[in-house]
Amino acid sequence: MTITSFLFTAAGFVLLMVALGLARILRGPTHADRILSVQLIGSGGVAVLLLLSVAAKFPPIMDVALMLGLLATFVSVAFLGDAADSSSAFTGTTEDQ
To answer: Which positions ≥6 away from 73 have C-beta within 8 Å?
Structure first.
């Protein structure tokens, strides 16, 4: 087994784990489960792109991986803000103006 085939196999395994995380987003009973699944998808996506970049010897994919990591962070922050807004709506509390 060559290094290239090992990297492609590892990328496929990580992609499979990310697919399982996607199923958790759809079934997650709490917002915390969904937020952690989004983080998993972002981190897994970065890992897959970095593995493919090295295996295919195509460095520009690394730039895409860095952008995906940055976007995953912003999505997590947006989910946290949405979860905080929805929890305050259910409890009847208001924010100080």
So the answer is: 42
